[in-house]
Structure formats: C-alpha cells, structure tokens
Write a structure and sequence with these properties.
Helix content is 43%, strand content 17%. It is α/β, with parallel strands linked by helices and 358 residues long. The chain folds into two domains: 3-171, Rossmann fold, CATH 3.40.50; 238-358, Dehydroquinate synthase-like, alpha domain (Up-down Bundle), CATH 1.20.1090. The chain is globular, with a radius of gyration of 19 Å. The protein binds glycine (GLY).
C-alpha cells in the first residue's frame, strides 16, 4: 500500500521505498547524491542497493536496544564537523542531493548540515524510526544540541520529499517503537479523535517488532502524519498553532535531558509520555498512556533540576514556564503558565499513579 500526503512544498511518500524512491529520483537531475546514514539502519536493512549514493557518511549511532537516547549524544557540532568534512571531501556542489537515512538525530543533524553546506543543498528525509516518520522528518525543523540544550542551534528548511517505509519499523526494538508511539498519541490527542479511538485499543504487545503488518502501520502513520502536516502547513515557523506540537515536550525535554546524564536514560518518547501526563492531566488519556508506557519513578529530590531545565525551554518569556496543551476542539491550542509549585504538584501526582514501574 502506498499513499502520498501533500504539503504545499513537498510530498510525504508513504510505502515501500522500492516503489517510491526510484520513481521520484527519476524526475530529478541532481549532480551527486550524498547519503548520511545511521549505522543501525544500515546494519538492519537488507535493501541498501536502493540507496542511490556511493558517497556516504555513517553516523555511528549506538543500537537503541543498548542505550536509550544514545544517538542524541552525537547530535552536536563535533559530528557536524565530520559530516561537513565528508561533504567537502566528496566535492559536493550546490546541485547535489543529500539523503538522510535514519532516525530523528540523523534527520535533524543531516538536514542541518545540508541546509548550511554552501548555503544550502537539497535534501530528502528517509526516516527509519517511528518517531522520525511521524514527527521529526516533517516540518523542516533542523538542528543540533549545544551546551546541553536540546536543539539549541538550528534552522527551518524543508526537505524536497520525505519517504516513510514501514518496513524499517520491523528492525526496531520494542522500546524504540514505543518511543515513537508517544508522538502518534500526541497527534491523535491534538487533532484526530478517530486515531485516538484506535490507540485506546492498542496493546503494549502490538508495539513489538513484527507484530503489526506494514499495512497496519500505514493506517496509523497516515492519519498521524496528516495531523503534523496540517499544523506545519498552517504555521511553518511556529508563530502560533505549531506550538501545539510541543504538547508534552516542555516537561518531556526537561525529563529527557535530566535522565540523559544518568545511567538510565529515557527515550524521547518515554520522556514525552511523562510530559503529556504532567501537562495534560486528563484521566482517560493518562490511563492509556500509563498502560502503554508504564511509570518511571520520579523522586522529589530531582524536581528542582527538572524545573531548572524547563526554564531553558524556547517558548518561555521572562522566566515563566509556558506549556502548550490541546484545547477542547481538534487543532485548538491552550497556553498555560506553570508556576514552580504547580509543576512540582504535577510531577508528584505523576509519581503517585498506580502503574508498573519501568
Ligand atoms: N516536533 C515539533 C515540531 O515539529 O514543531
């Protein structure tokens, strides 16, 4: 099954890469193709012949099963320097195409390198994780972490196309799949209640590798991508409604960056699931989210550190922590201001929910 979701400037082609990619490339005339690939995606995927580039930079991302959030540690200026260097060695000109094959880290960082190399060369995204297919690869946000702050440096620039092939989902460990599912939940809660109905019936077992067919994934991916596409089309540069995509992310980023510095890092989605519970505090949603994700114990001693991190969030003005939560209608945005006390109360409430710990 293939389908296309059209954004004003580029398509998202959903379906087997063997059908979508060669047909798209045939219509283009690029001087060279340079692939930036996630080592894991390459290791698990047996169709590398489809990759049109001979020049390649492989980002040595650790396997997600070994180290949750490990690839995030590579999303920095040092890795960019290695990528730009490889692009220069390959003598890329401005008529070249960069192909980013991998998860959110490779898409964000590879896109950033492409967007800044010689003032910008075209790039396409081939997301290989659920998170990247449904969220990171769409909407033109590119960037890297800096001085411990996530996505501190970056630009907006759209890809020429996004190719989402559910076959890659079979190569992901269950934890990685579940991580991406947090963004699917987010999209359903902010804009597609029919998708939310489907999610409520999803069991944690369904999110293990190989338990859903490519067509079943397409039925989830298509509406989820459509929500993201609709929002970034309405507000490409985040002056308004796009803030809705940050639902769960103010608390989520703080939790993610805190645990990244411990021996037990969380995946992005695990952190966003905690964030959605703390920010949304809606009972049925909380129940579903905790059923799928479990609960990470959250001792009060870490609350001040989380609060400090929440204040780095780009949405904050004059020290107040603002969170974006869904309103009562699909695609409606509510901005709430969280005081320190209220943030602590919500974190404590999260920690008190009766759910299995992970
Ligand atoms: N992932 C949030 C956004 O694209 O705006």
């Amino acid at each position: 099954m293939t389908c296309t979701i059209h954004l004003p400037d580029y398509p998202v082609l959903l379906g087997p890469l063997s059908e979508t990619l060669p047909a798209w490339l045939q219509q283009k005339k690029y001087s060279r193709i340079f692939v930036i690939a996630d080592a894991n995606a390459l290791a698990h995927w047996n169709n590398t012949a489809l990759l049109p580039g001979t020049e390649m930079y492989v980002v040595p991302c650790p396997p997600a099963s070994e180290h949750a959030g490990g690839a995030e540690r590579l999303k920095n200026l040092d890795t960019c320097a290695l990528i730009w260097n490889a692009m220069q060695q390959a003598r890329l000109d401005r008529q070249a195409l960069v192909v980013n094959l991998g998860g959110g880290v490779v898409g964000d960082m590879g896109g950033f390198c492409a967007a800044t190399f010689k003032r910008g060369v075209d790039f396409i995204q081939i997301p290989t994780t659920l998170l990247a297919m449904t969220d990171a690869a769409i909407g033109g946000k590119l960037g890297i972490d800096f001085n411990g702050i996530k996505n501190a440096l970056g630009v907006f620039r759209n890809p020429q196309a996004v190719f989402a092939d559910p076959v890659f989902l079979e190569t992901l460990p269950a934890r990685e799949l579940r991580s991406g599912f947090a963004e699917v939940i987010k999209h359903a809660l902010i804009g597609d209640y029919e998708l939310w109905e489907k999610i409520q019936k999803t069991t944690p077992e369904a999110l293990s590798p190989g338990s859903m067919t490519a067509d079943a994934w397409t039925e989830i991916l298509e509406p989820s991508i459509a929500v993201k596409a609709q929002i970034v089309t309405l507000d490409p540069h985040e002056h308004g409604i796009r803030a809705l995509l940050n639902f769960g992310h103010t608390v989520g980023h703080a939790v993610e960056s805190y645990f990244l510095e411990t021996d037990e890092p969380l995946t992005h989605g695990e952190a966003v699931a905690i964030g959605m519970v703390c920010e949304g505090l809606l009972s049925t949603e909380t129940e579903t989210i905790l059923r799928i994700f479990g609960r990470r114990p959250m001792p009060e001693s870490i609350f001040p550190k989380l609060w400090e991190r929440m204040q780095h969030d780009k949405k904050n003005t004059s020290g107040a922590v603002r969170i974006a939560v869904p309103g009562t209608e699909p695609f409606s945005l509510q901005i709430l201001e969280l005081s320190r006390e209220e943030a602590f109360r919500r974190l404590k409430l999260y920690d008190s929910f009766d759910s299995f710990e992970f």
